[in-house]
Design brief:
With about 600 residues, the chain is mainly beta. The chain contains five helices and 43 strands. Strand 30 and strand 31 form a beta hairpin. The longest helix has 28 residues. The protein is rod-shaped, with a radius of gyration of 60 Å.
């Protein structure tokens, strides 16, 4: 019985395996006629039969079943799903493009990029496919189509594998903001020497404005732009303080937007300007003559040139020169005329001129120099006299020292000068300069020089011990006691001209009385005047006495309100002189 069953199974295996082989040959050769009466088993029956063979006929596992398995692997492709692109990122944005990158996916055949756009109401739209990249070695994409400034975008990337079955990776997403557009206008206003105000147009997408600045250095180079402040979106101006006068400042107004935790900033709208230059700190009168005025001024930082304007009493300011120098000599002037000058600094940047504030000075050409200078010597003094100079405020008297330097000895409004006691047998050099005050400064005329050799006598005589000197030109009186100066006082001598002048010469005291009554007449007038002290020194009634009716002495009073020849003296001074006087005491009038 067992033998019969074994034979039957063998026959069954043969009838099953042979038709499968015939069917395979028919497909590979595309022969339809030879396969018309061949029945091809289904995969299910094939598996079942193969299973049975494997169980009941182990000897067949290395023949036909193995062949059938190899044929199935050659004709069936495995299904592979690509991995998601890694390191999906934004590498660059502008107001009109976005660049995204990712790492290469080896088992992909293409990449699909989708984008969702921010709507006008701030909400996000749905994703839409915008690009398919068929080269898997391309791992970057620059999106320029339909990109708007200052807008939020979301990107999604998917790796795709196309085979008998198309598969897609999980998607990677990111979001980014494009740079906002710049403000349309920016300008500088309200400029001073240490501040500028920057103004700009409003930008609707701004969350705030970032102000950046680049500063000029002393050598003309510029620093890198750096942020100096952030301004609220409701503001459209910023005042920058603490700047340097005359320097160039560059600014950028950048629009910054923040959305969904992302911040983007525009490139910035630029503007530059120059702070107001400083005014020259000092404008001075360097030198004035009768035909020229030389002025000078201090240096102004960043100034390339200086403008000088001038006016006189009856004219308006007019620009007379633009110069790179810090001095200017004006030769187009009139002697003795007052002028006012003003100076300002100028800087040219990119063909445009920038100015500083004016600083001014009032000055004048010098008055004419002293003329008619003469010198005489009395009792070891030098008496200098000169003609009055029209327009002069006064005169300065200088003496030359042994080292050649000139030392100012006196300033007077009168036309004479009496030195102190000089050494005998020595030559002294003096100079007299007329001047006028202009804006608190003296403007000198040309100096006139003269020398004097002191003599000890006066009118051929030399006093000693105690004596009195009266100088008519200077209206001064001196008393020496034991050859030392005892009293110096201002006096009023006789009226100059008209026969009432005090007589010059070497006199002596011929009458002495305290108190005394003075009686006299001149022309149609006569007088009887009591005085406290009287020292007569001429036979016609000239003398030294107090004059309580006067309130002032010295100067040029004697030229319009002089005495009748006497020497009017303050009571305090004459009392001291009287106390040391005596009959026969010399009184020298010169």
């Amino acid at each position: 019985m067992k033998k019969i069953i074994s034979v039957l199974l063998s026959i069954l295996m043969l009838t099953t395996v042979v038709p499968f082989a015939v069917s395979a040959n028919a497909v590979s050769s595309d022969s339809h006629s030879s396969g018309e009466n061949v029945s091809t088993p289904t995969s299910e029956s094939l598996q079942e039969n193969t299973f049975e063979t494997a169980v009941q006929s182990p000897s067949q596992e290395t023949t036909e079943p193995t062949t059938a398995t190899e044929s199935t692997q050659e004709t069936t492709e495995p299904i592979i799903t690509p991995s998601a692109p890694k390191n999906f990122r934004v590498t660059s944005t502008s107001s009109d493009y976005v660049i995204i990158k990712w790492d290469k996916v080896d088992n992909a055949t293409s990449y699909v990029i989708s984008r969702a756009d921010e709507k006008s109401n701030g909400k996000m739209g749905s994703y839409k496919e915008i690009k398919t990249i068929d080269d898997i070695n391309v791992t970057a994409y620059k999106n320029t189509a339909n990109i708007s400034a200052g807008k939020l975008y979301k990107y999604k990337i998917t790796a795709v594998r196309k085979a008998s079955v198309t598969t897609k990776s999980p998607s990677q997403t990111l979001k980014t903001l494009t740079n906002p557009s710049n403000v349309s206008k920016v300008k500088v206003s309200d400029k001073t020497s240490d501040s500028m105000t920057i103004k700009w147009s409003k930008n609707s997408s701004a969350s705030k404005y970032i102000i950046m600045r680049s500063v000029e250095s002393s050598n003309g180079s510029f620093s890198k732009y750096s942020s100096i402040t952030a301004v609220k979106k409701s503001k459209t101006s910023y005042k920058d303080k603490g700047l340097k006068a005359g320097y160039i400042y560059k600014y950028k107004v950048c629009v910054q937007r923040t959305k969904s935790g992302i911040t983007a900033t525009s490139t910035g709208k630029a503007v530059k300007n120059v702070t107001t230059l400083a005014s020259p700190k000092k404008v001075v009168n360097r030198k004035s003559t009768t035909t020229k005025i030389k002025i000078a001024w201090s240096k102004v930082a960043k100034a390339s040139k200086y403008q000088v304007y001038r006016k006189s009493a009856n004219t308006k300011y007019k620009k007379i020169v633009t110069t790179a120098s810090r001095t200017y000599t004006d030769s187009n002037v009139t002697t003795g005329t007052n002028y006012r000058y003003k100076v300002r600094a100028v800087r040219t940047v990119s063909g445009k001129k920038y100015y500083g504030a004016f600083n001014s000075i009032k000055t004048a050409t010098a008055v004419k120099g002293v003329t008619g200078l003469s010198v005489k010597s009395y009792l070891k003094r030098g008496l200098f006299s000169w003609k009055a100079v029209s327009g002069a405020s006064g005169y300065d008297v200088f003496v030359q020292r042994a080292n050649g330097q000139w030392l100012k000895k006196a300033s007077t409004s009168y036309t004479n000068y009496l030195t102190g006691k000089l050494k005998l047998n020595k030559t002294y050099k003096y100079a007299v300069k007329s001047y006028k005050y202009v804006n608190g400064q003296k403007v000198y005329g040309k100096a006139k020089k003269a020398s004097v050799n002191a003599v000890a006598s006066a009118y051929g005589k030399t006093p000693s011990g105690t004596w009195v000197e009266v100088c008519i030109e200077t209206q001064k009186m001196y008393m020496y006691v034991k050859n030392k100066l005892y009293v110096t006082t201002d006096v009023v001598t006789g009226l100059a001209g008209g026969g009432r002048a005090t007589t010059r010469g070497y006199h002596t005291v011929i009458s002495r009385k305290s108190p005394a009554v003075l009686r006299g007449s001149y022309g149609s007038s006569s007088w009887t005047t009591p005085v406290s002290y009287w020292l007569g020194f001429t036979s016609d009634g000239q003398g030294i006495h107090d004059s309580s009716w006067r309130s002032a002495y010295g100067g040029n009073i004697y030229t319009y309100d002089g005495s009748h020849g006497c020497v009017n003296t303050p009571t305090g001074a004459v009392s001291k002189i009287y106390s040391k006087s005596f009959l026969g005491m010399p009184v020298i009038v010169y």
